[in-house]
Write a structure and sequence with these properties.
Helix content: 10-25%
Shape: globular
Number of strands: 23
Number of helices: 10
Radius of gyration: 24 Å
Strand content: 25-35%
Distance between the termini: 59 Å
Largest sheet: 10 strands, mixed
Length: 522
């Protein structure tokens, strides 16, 4: 059994943790710390962290409940206390009996955020970190994206954390607690029926809510020193771009910074989903036919803490389409920005449009929004992430579809994907959702990446949409496809009253997708 441990924060609040000591010897050992809100004894969290395996590798492992969660004192306020509490916890952990004074951190999602918060606070004992599947700026992927609220993600996440919140706040009122828990359970069940704004949300804390604590600046904006980091990300993770941005910021700080990006989503790292099977090499259990992802991270940590060269390439990225791992010197690799233009008749072409090409349009109805289907997201089980076939979406009248000709040779794209649209809306605010797909010869249209930008008012304008990043080879005979829509529900909140949406595609007002091409069409 792990040992119980208590850490007093600077304001006297006690945070509780479990300690896993190596089975042999008395130390001293480096500490491996994980801090999270999901319960330090939650089976799912323990399966991800595997603290006993880390202890067998010679780490004194500490798994701590953050403030206001489970065994720890205080009030739960997402994102607010992790900077000061992270600093205090690292300093405390470095002085535990058996510790050698050095602390590394690890863990995914919110546990990745607590690492970047601690890095920003810069405790002197923090020697390395392995943040996985986490954000950089919370306003780009956690609470919002392109000005649209990440309402689906925040709703399911907040409801999932609600049981412990209600248990604490209503501890002295058992009847009221029972009623509130029934409402919470019913709200979670109703997500599958399309009710994504349940009243119980008003009783729960969520980051970025009106009147709530302000969000801290992105870790990429920090000025503190950065320890060596190994960032783990997934092409279909809701926090993909934040992970890549964090890695680039760490690399810019001049310390060792490694990156592994797989064809994974936030909850699955096998590379096999109902949408697509990327092959056995994609599975984290035997990454590229070698050691597991967890073994690789522990080996990296041991090397860094020993002052040895970091094992493996600086970047290991899974290239979809080719379905192979690619070692790289840095991310993103050198690429040529290449525009593909939306053309008349639903064409998509590297050739710019002529002067007389007509615009395309559709009508936006917020009562019948375009449904979310796959992509890099984190919603309920009825909305799984991944490269799902978009043909049911493309059949709608409120989704513009532009498709290229079959490719004569492979086209390799690696890096940030962006779109620039010349648009007009007769009502506002208006959302512009852009999606990139790979169309196979059999017609399957798999989403690769997408993004959204919200314009505040009606009228014509040029809109830039960030589709985040990908690494993909369009194979010969495949076609590129671009969607333009006004919504993706329940992923993003639905903007504006009903109205017409127009996308221009002429020489004076070209609409185009810009791809980072790393391999020419051959």
């Amino acid at each position: 059994m792990p040992e119980d441990a208590e850490a007093a924060m600077r304001d006297g609040t006690v945070l509780r943790a479990d300690l896993y000591r190596p089975p042999r010897g008395t130390g001293p050992w480096p500490v491996l710390l994980a801090r999270g809100p999901y319960g330090r004894r939650d089976p799912g969290i323990l399966a991800r962290l595997d603290p006993r395996a880390a202890a067998r590798r010679g780490f004194l492992v500490v798994v701590q409940d953050v403030r206001g969660r489970f065994g720890s004192e205080g009030s739960w306020e997402p994102l607010v206390h992790e900077y000061d509490d992270g600093y205090d916890t690292v300093r405390w952990a470095a002085r535990l009996p058996g510790a050698d004074g050095r602390v590394a951190m690890y863990g995914p999602s919110y546990l990745g955020h607590t690492q970047w918060a601690a890095i920003t606070a810069a405790p002197p004992e923090l020697a390395a970190a392995v943040p996985e599947f986490t954000w950089a700026d919370p306003r780009d992927g956690l609470t919002a994206r392109g000005g649209a609220a990440e309402s689906g993600l925040l709703t399911q996440w907040t409801l999932g954390l609600g049981h412990e919140v209600l248990r604490r706040t209503l501890a002295g009122a058992p009847d009221e607690l029972a009623r509130a828990l029934r409402e919470l359970s019913a709200a979670q069940d109703r997500l599958t029926a399309g009710d994504w704004n349940p009243p119980v949300l008003c009783a729960l804390p969520w980051p970025g809510r009106p009147g709530g604590p302000p969000l801290r600046a992105a870790p990429a904006d920090r000025g503190a020193p950065c320890p060596p980091t190994l960032t783990v990300a997934g092409w279909y993770d809701a926090f993909l771009q934040g992970s890549l941005d964090n890695h680039r910021a760490a690399r810019a700080a001049g310390r060792p910074a490694a990156l592994i990006v797989g064809p994974w989503n936030h909850e699955d790292r096998t590379g096999r989903t109902a949408a697509h099977d990327f092959g056995p090499a994609a599975d984290e259990a035997a990454l590229d036919g070698g050691p597991s992802l967890r073994e690789r991270t522990l080996t990296w940590l041991a090397a860094v803490l020993a002052g040895e060269p970091c094992p493996g390439p600086p970047v290991l990225a899974f290239v979809m389409g080719a379905d192979e791992w690619r070692p790289l010197d840095h991310w993103p690799p050198p690429a040529t920005p290449t525009a593909w233009y939306l053309r008349a008749g639903g064409a998509l072409s590297p050739e710019p449009p002529g002067a007389g090409e007509p615009p395309a349009g559709f009508r936006h109805d917020p009562a019948d929004p375009v449904p979310t289907r796959g992509g890099a997201l984190l919603l309920d089980p009825t909305h799984p992430a991944g490269p799902y076939d978009q043909r049911p979406i493309e059949a709608r009248g409120d989704v513009l579809v532009h498709t290229g000709e079959p490719l004569a040779g492979p086209l390799e794209v690696m890096g940030r994907v962006r779109a620039t649209l010349a648009v007009a809306a007769d009502t506002g605010p208006a959302d512009w959702v852009v999606r990139l797909c790979d169309v196979a010869p059999d017609g399957t249209s798999r989403v690769l990446t997408d993004g959204v930008a919200r314009t505040p008012a009606a009228g014509p304008r040029e809109v830039r949409v960030d589709l985040w990043s990908t690494a993909h080879v369009f194979r010969p005979g495949h076609r590129l496809r671009v969607h333009v829509a006004a919504s993706s529900h329940p992923r993003w909140d639905v903007a504006g009253p009903p109205g017409a949406r127009t996308v221009f595609r002429d020489a004076a007002r070209p609409s185009r997708l810009v791809l980072p091409v790393t391999g020419p069409v051959r």
